[in-house]
Specification:
about 230 residues, mainly alpha
């Protein structure tokens, strides 16, 4: 057990809540990409069975393992053919932004539901207080990890959504030049993230920022339901 606690990014006792929050966050994130791409006229994701909330269609095993170990990972990317869009640049931006925005909405909805349940006396009414603790722990990870996914995916480095958004906003000539450097930028990104001396300056600040953003949702819950 001590060995696993040293290897894993989170403690064993909270691991199920961490994994469940990530599975939900990844699934809704990738579903949102697929849904809007299909809505805007690109059936690529739909033909591959990605317009679904079934986690099996979106979860990447290696990406999940790395999240458990390093706190950084990925889901299966949704293939998008922008040539099928009536307005390729605008619709590509919306499709790319849909994933991170969906994670932000998950965090918001989770906070509102939790404080609503607390306000109406559902939380705290269980005979076994372990249920209340489990619910609170799950809510914490749902909000934190979805805030993290929101922030992380907006980083303007390939293959993240932030890069796709920025590349669409740039003039086509500059954007075309960037595409030639994508593979090298991706390798640089992996080095920055995975080198232990650099993680404290890359991934760790993102989690701290996610924690700050999470706090705003708790404050909103308090404001709506009076604590």
């Amino acid at each position: 057990m001590d060995f696993l606690n040293q290897v894993l990014f989170v403690r064993l006792d909270v691991l199920p809540f961490y994994v469940l929050a990530l599975v939900i966050g990844f699934t809704v994130h990738e579903f949102s990409h697929a849904y809007f791409a299909n809505k805007f006229g690109d059936p690529t994701a739909k033909m591959l069975g990605r317009v679904t909330l079934n986690p099996a269609a979106h979860i990447d095993i290696l990406g999940m393992i790395l999240l458990l170990i390093a706190g950084f990972g990925w889901a299966r990317p949704v293939p998008v053919n922008r040539a099928n869009f009536d307005r390729p640049r605008l619709m590509s931006i919306v499709v790319s932004a849909a994933g991170p925005v969906s994670n932000l909405l998950i965090a918001l909805v989770t906070a509102v539901i939790y404080y609503a349940l607390n306000y109406f006396g559902v939380i705290g009414s269980f005979a076994n207080n372990r249920i209340d603790i489990a619910i609170y722990t799950f809510v914490q990870y749902m909000i934190l990890m979805n805030c993290f996914l929101f922030i992380f995916n907006l980083i303007p480095l390939p293959p993240l959504d932030g890069y796709r958004i920025v590349s669409e906003l740039l003039p086509p000539r500059i954007s075309a030049k960037l595409h030639g450097f994508e593979q090298w930028a991706f390798l640089l990104f992996l080095l920055i993230v995975f080198l232990p001396p650099l993680k404290m300056y890359t991934i760790q600040p993102l989690y701290e920022l996610a924690g700050t953003l999470s706090g705003s949702f708790y404050s909103l819950g308090n404001l709506l339901f009076g604590g």
